[in-house]
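Re: the multi-chain job from yesterday

Posting the exact lines I submitted so nobody has to dig through the queue logs.
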Amino acid sequence: MPIYNAPLADMKFILNDVFQAEKFWQKNENLAHLDAATAEAILEEMAKFSQNVTLPLNRTGDEEGAKYDNGTVTTPAGFKAAFQQYAEGGWIGLGADAEWGGQEMPKMLTVLSDEMLFATNPSFMLYPLLSVGAGMALNSYASQEQKETYLPKIYTGEWAGTMCLTEPHAGTDLGIIKTKAEPNNDGSYNITGTKIFITGGDHDLTENIIHLVLAKTPNAPAGSRGISLFIVPKFLVNEDGSLGERNPVNPGSIEHKMGIKASATCVMNFDAAKGFLVGKENEGLAAMFVMMNYERLSMGIQGLGASEFAYQNAAQYATDRIQGRSVTGAKSPDKVADSILVHGDVRRMLLNARANNEASRAFAVYVGQQLDITKFSTDPEAIKAANNRVALLTPIAKAYLTDTAFQAVLDAQMCFGGHGYIREWGMEQCIRDLRIAQIYEGTNGVQSQDLIGRKTIKCEGEFLAEYISEIRDFTNSLDAELNFIKDATLDAATEVESVTKYILEATQENPEFPNSAAVDYLHVVGLLSFAYMFARIANAAKEKEGDFYQNKIALAGYFVQRILPELSVRITKVKAGSEVIMSFSEDYFTHQS
Amino acid sequence: MPIYNAPLADMKFILNDVFQAEKFWQKNENLAHLDAATAEAILEEMAKFSQNVTLPLNRTGDEEGAKYDNGTVTTPAGFKAAFQQYAEGGWIGLGADAEWGGQEMPKMLTVLSDEMLFATNPSFMLYPLLSVGAGMALNSYASQEQKETYLPKIYTGEWAGTMCLTEPHAGTDLGIIKTKAEPNNDGSYNITGTKIFITGGDHDLTENIIHLVLAKTPNAPAGSRGISLFIVPKFLVNEDGSLGERNPVNPGSIEHKMGIKASATCVMNFDAAKGFLVGKENEGLAAMFVMMNYERLSMGIQGLGASEFAYQNAAQYATDRIQGRSVTGAKSPDKVADSILVHGDVRRMLLNARANNEASRAFAVYVGQQLDITKFSTDPEAIKAANNRVALLTPIAKAYLTDTAFQAVLDAQMCFGGHGYIREWGMEQCIRDLRIAQIYEGTNGVQSQDLIGRKTIKCEGEFLAEYISEIRDFTNSLDAELNFIKDATLDAATEVESVTKYILEATQENPEFPNSAAVDYLHVVGLLSFAYMFARIANAAKEKEGDFYQNKIALAGYFVQRILPELSVRITKVKAGSEVIMSFSEDYFTHQS
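And the result, structure tokens for all chains:
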């Protein structure tokens, strides 16, 4: 059976040494209730839960899958008990406001607890994740009465949440959705339409499910400015909070997917289901984006979790598997062969994964800290700066972390040879489960368009300039013994600045330029971000003694020599422009002659 | 249902225009029976078979899978009838000698017919593929009597073949296998041991299965010099050719795999099964490598087939799916949105796939032609040169074609967004099915070690120097209007020459250098090879008129601008050396602190 040991030592290093979290929390009155010891205790509890409860359900969940039968969805054996245990532990409301029963933990911490769940059972994790996302959207946009009705039950895990956006003909382009919301006399609406790809659209984990649904009211403006957000509960809620009549919102089927098979992905049919407007008419997309941004960071964490899980298993397998001999002479002469760890190519795959994992973990905590500033700070300047940073880095967190993680799980599978391709070692499931993270919540291509368009060109590079300014300030302060990462990071910053200027100019002449350059540009900013993370990691490690810390600095060296060089080819591709890409006729693509 | 239109126009272009196959065949007395019209007719027949017979069985085969029950393996519904139809069409012996009932078609042609089968049903294709591989090994090393007994029945499809190499503890390192062969008085041997990952180890497609088994005789030398090859038939064959008693070789189970689920991958137990030595004792590995090299080129074709299939489906989906608007204004103002082909990033993914497909197809035919020279030529000089070329390029054909294809199928899936992740569009199966091609028949990492070690360092770069000399001769002859590909190819050749020299020198000082550099070096030589193929494609297209040919030249331009730049980062990584990789202790990999 696959192994997983929660990387607590690394998590504590990132929190305590790299980001000095306790100091940050204590400085902020809204977070002063938290100290490092409490944070560590929370991580240790989640380590136990993920290792003992969700990990053993991962393969069985995949094999059994969520099941649809006659209008009802059933989760695999053990999921309901695990969900109840998770809910009873207070985990669903870990980051939620105390007013609604939450524990008010900062995102810096919850990203780490989320990582362990994603590592051990991504299908399971998606159920509470959607609840938390729905809770966030309600917390930001719903009325006080709506919050009182729904939020406490969501955080206790009695009810769950979903987000219902996609329709058969409308995914990325939500402006063309067809689901209708017709007003009733009592202020409610009748919601009619079909939504697809609804994670947790139906299941047996909770007594009620609160759907957040995008729909169009009569005479709403065309496009994305005419979309409203509605609460559509599976069971209507009586005034006393008890469950009332069954609302006509039903799963029509579940999808048969490549992976995350224990997560029920539903087609949801709304047949004049009663819905309640959240916020104002036609302003639904903004409310949904609160949830989307939260999910997008989480998808990056899904990548990190999977990659850490895959790394640990591949490293163990490579240690145990003996095959061939070291070129410098037998390392285990008492055995018929050496461990495959003597081969540089096996190490290369493992070190790529480990370097990306450690940088990803630091980056997730960094973005979490920025989100915490936007939520908990009392300084308007700091909040504004952090909002810009979050806007810039959310697409990186979603797409770059999942792109690097997917390569890492592929490499981990490769370390197993043929054994990686069969079910028992868990690698093939890990790949199938992770692949969706590059696709859903806006494909990584769409994330890249967001980064280059709304987050860069629209503000004329301001968000990036602010980020690079911080990177330079920090990196310039590094000691001379860290020159290898200092120089590499500063050089990368200059190159990123320069290619961004190039993009801004090229776009003025050719509006098609950015779309073709987007994915490569996202990797450019991702590489710089990981260099910055390694600068921070190396700086923190340098203060300490022992192999653990020395290895952090060595891994930063590996990153500089073997991963950061990707920057130049990405920049070359950005500059290659869109001419050749757009020069082919549309017909060309489907015609061979 | 997924579509597939055999790319006949491109295949004919590659055969007739790029490689002028008929001229090559007619020049060679052993191939003079073949002309272009016959070759095209064969391709057209296979196009029908693959589109009408194997394509419809692809998804059902995946869903049903091969089944093991009480010592017997059953293939999915329809497979047996399809196999019979395939066998009756004479396809199994398409490339085999006439003496044994084959059609003596050259590899240049069979790679193209293989591509169509791999595109439409890789699981199906593996059954005849193993038969053909076993036939080749027997044809090269078996006695006349053995050939007479087994080869005709294999090529009619009455019997099938397997290769039994891997054991639970021994995959890449065959020197440590434990299967024993104990001599009997009648000249036969008793074979005892367990083999795993045996493709087609048991099935219901044929009345007999001829296993080729690696085993060790008593007192055989240790390591790979003590391995012998045996024929172990499922049913022993009587002197009159009829089937005799059941040999104690049985499937113990079948593997549950990520993909190619309709291909039975068996654990095979040999319990003193009667075996017959092929060739000489202790020389089994050489005989098996005849088969392995054949399979390795085929795995590259598996990549090409999958990538062409994925490309066609993604291009069609991208044409049909409307979502968002072109940045330069609506292209389909009568619809609610434009086709996603207006987005540069979607085109980038499709063009990457198409460029790699067209170069891969040319490369497969090129390597096929070299194999044909080794087999059919009467000129010893030409045979020696072709043998060197095949040795050099086999690892590229296996690993580079599958690496680029795997990226292409991932990109194709991404073009579908969430629809790519669900079963109905066929993309997720394509990915699962293709992934094994990077792993089996020697992982792509092992192929890279083969390229850099045995094929480059061992001959001090001679094979590569010969190849580059041919590339320079050809490319220098290009017209000035093709300077864009001429210059790019010549520059690449110089860079590859230079980094190869670097490797030869670095290895003298540090024997661990090549292992760490191998995968990047394989991509270096792969990129040069594709540049060379595009030089040949562009040169052939330039002579012709019409969009089909103009687009070939445009695609060569795309390759130069957007794919070939990978060369520089690969070279940087090669030169990064092994120091940092080998600097970590073995303990580091499995320890977090």
